[in-house]
Design brief:
By secondary structure, this protein is α+β, with helices and mostly antiparallel strands. Helix content is 19%, strand content 56%. It has one domain.
């Protein structure tokens, strides 16, 4: 019985560590996305703070396309390059604000792209969630850390 429990624990830890692995090598420059973080601030229509959440539980659906879109729209990001002994790291920051038109519960924040076929989700930030009512203003502050292009 102990052996079975040990095997199950090792399997679960192995799957968890695979799911939480973030560095992704993509593109001809071999850029790696090292992390993406989302900070979500909700204010009511009077400007009062309703909720504040942070999450690093973020998934990239298509790393290659994600990096390409960042490169194509780099002017929309606040960009900082940090030099380390193992190479340059790029820190990109951008935010988006949405005013909710109806009551709901929000537990995902997305970065999506409008295409001819319809919207395509590139990044999903999963978190505990929060209720909103019409007029609540949600601002998501995205921080993307990746290796700098050579």
């Amino acid at each position: 019985m102990r052996v079975l429990l040990s095997i199950m624990l090792v399997s679960i830890l192995g799957v968890s560590s695979i799911g939480m692995s973030f560095a992704q090598t993509v593109g001809p420059q071999q850029q790696q996305v090292l992390g993406i973080y989302a900070q979500i601030v909700i204010r009511d229509s009077s400007g009062n703070l309703v909720s504040y959440l942070e999450t690093s539980n973020v998934r990239i659906n298509d790393p290659s396309q994600f990096n390409q879109i960042i490169d194509d729209n780099i002017g929309q990001f606040k960009r900082t390059v940090v030099t380390t002994t193992s190479g340059d790291i790029e820190i990109l920051q951008v935010n988006e604000t949405f005013v909710h038109p109806s009551p709901t519960i929000v537990s995902l924040n997305l970065i999506s792209l409008k295409t001819a076929e319809g919207p395509k989700t590139l990044v999903i930030a999963d978190h505990d969630g929060f209720p909103v009512i019409p007029g609540d203003r949600m601002t998501t502050y995205w921080t993307i850390v990746r290796t700098a292009p050579s």
